[in-house]
Amino acid sequence: MRVSTSWTQQLSVTAMLNQQATVTKTQMQLSTGLKNLTPADDPIAAKNIMDFQERIDKTIQYQENADMAKARNGLEGSVLMNSRESLLRARDLAVQALNEAVLKPEDKLAIEAEIRQIQEGVLALANTQDANGEYIFSGTHSKTATFSSTAPYVYQGSGMQRELQIGPARRIADGDLGFAIFENIPTASAPPPATRNIFDTLEAFSDGLTGAVLPYHGTVNAALADIDAVLEKVGEAEARVGARLRALDNQEDQNESYLLAMRSTLSEVKDLDYAEAISRFELENTVLQASQQAYVKVQGLSLFNFL
User: For residue 229, what are the CA distances in angstroms to 178, 194, 213?
Assistant: First the structure.
């Protein structure tokens, strides 16, 4: 079988080009830090990388939701604490108002003025907005003020709590409904069983102090009972907030552990082993240089050199 010089040269050129492609691919791996430059390099690995990245992205979203829920619940906790302090002061004033025998008319007016201030303050707290301008006690109607700003005070929020997904199978409320805290208070001020909100209670208490609502002692006693009832509701809400914040801390820890494991697994599948790649690159480059030098020498050979 005759082997032509051109065919031999073509084999050498093809081998050099293949080796050059191998060196170039390794250079690209080193520059990108990736094991596989295209899905065709390893289809199974490419599919796994997509799955791992999707899980990581979902978990990051769970963490962002948990952070949002923590901020909203933390804000609610602060609002509830301030509400409790204001209502305790209103309770002290109600007890003081029951001692009518020792109160002067100006004393009643002073109490009435302070009750008005407390009413306005608690109403403002019930209509608290977060950093995004959403009303934290309005549930899913977060763009609507929780209570109307003038008497009669009407609850305007929704009947559904807003929940956020914080784990693959876990959702949590980002706050309580204002209806459950400041509204729906069983009141002693009406003959049949009835409910009202704390703002109407304070309104009636204030009117009772000025003589606009009678009987005086009945009005003050009803206000005292309503204040006690809403203080109990505030305490229950504070307990729920604390429980949710603890649950959020636990879930965030779980999410962080999962993210760490997923990122480690993704790195094993996706990221280049630089030490191995550098060693391989040096070997491939040496082979390429050797083949180039051999080709140059073969090109210079001819039978005429031996005649």
Answer: 15, 13, 21
Has this prediction a pTM greater than 0.85?
A: no
- Contact indicator for 188, 94 with CB cutoff of 8 Å: no
- Which residues, 6 or more positions from 60, have their beta carbon under 8 angstroms from its beta carbon? 259
* Residue 303 confidence (pLDDT): 47
Helix 198-210 vs helix 43-98: angle between axes, to the nearest 10 degrees?
20
215 cis-preceded (ω within 30 degrees of 0):
yes
What is the band of 151 on the pLDDT scale with cuts at 50, 70, 90?
A: confident
Tell me the pLDDT tens digit for each residue of 204-229.
999 999 987 788 899 999 999 999 99
Q: pLDDT tens-digit profile of 74-103? A: 999 999 999 999 999 999 999 999 998 899
With CA atoms as reference, report the closest residue to 224 among 86, 95, 80.
95
- For residue 192, is the peptide bond before it cis, meaning its omega torsion is within 30 degrees of 0? no
Tokens standing for residue 33? 């830090």
Give alpha helix (H) positions in the chain. 5-32, 43-98, 105-126, 178-181, 198-210, 216-270, 274-299
Q: Which two tokens stand for residue 270?
A: 């996706």
- Do residues 210 and 108 touch, judged by C-beta distance below 8 A? yes
